Amino acid sequence: MSGLLLRLAGPVQAWGERGVFHRRDTSAFPTRSALIGMFAAAQGRTREHALDPYPHLPGRPDHRDLTITIRIDQPGTRYRDFHTVGGGYGPRNALRTGNGTYRPEKESTLVSHRDYLIDACFTVAVEGPAPLIAHIAETLEQPRFGLFLGRRSCLPDEPLVLRHHTPDPIHELKTAAPLTRNAPPRDDTPIPVTFVWEHPPPHATNPDQPDREATSEPIDLTTGARRHLPRPLWLTTEPLPAGLHTGPRPLDALAAYKLGAPA
């Protein structure tokens, strides 16, 4: 087993769980489904083949062999966008219905509400078979399709991949990976940071009772046939060293960690 570290940050993010066209929500942190979709996009996989196994890798691993742990560096602020499509155009430019005809003028404008996270930052540990982890890291650095933080309008900041390979990414999250947040620590007091686990951590108070359940286990990512199963999640608060805070110039600390900090 091996692991890699990702940093998911950008002006806006959106991690939908139960969204439909007229009401598109966002989770408070990245979903498993969205991350697996991002890995598939980096590899040039279409939606129809996003969840296929990897026959060219030893043991034919697939996405179910991955375990994802999320550190919420900065939760961000929720923002709701009032979005319209199709309004103000003439009859021949109106939206079409499912059978190909044009919508009547009174029904030509579709309204939706779309939620986003503003100024959020997450550091994510992805663990799994070493060949699969190496393949994911390599393709994320040189993606074939565009990478997004949940929606196409949400582009990721650099660096995206913090560590290509680490034998203990959870230890890195707790002791070494730079922590990006706006509020600096006041002194050397440990910083309380929320972690999201897909399996109960060793120190969980109630390992048999998850803190929440997310509909984020992808079964089919094909357009029009997307299906997900629920997955239990455990949330803990971990005290991190104040020295992990990146300070006023996050890119300096992130570059130093990515290029030269010891594993």
TrEMBL record:
A single GO BP: maintenance of CRISPR repeat elements
Residue ranges of the TM segments: none
Gene3D superfamilies in the cross-refs: 3.30.70.2660
CDD domains, A to Z: Cas5_I-E
Pfam families: Cas_Cas5d
Region (Disordered): 200-220
GO MF entries: RNA binding
Protein name: CRISPR system Cascade subunit CasD
InterPro entries on file: CRISPR-assoc_prot_Cas5, CRISPR-assoc_prot_Cas5_N, CRISPR-assoc_prot_CasD
Keywords, alphabetical: Antiviral defense
Keyword Repeat: no
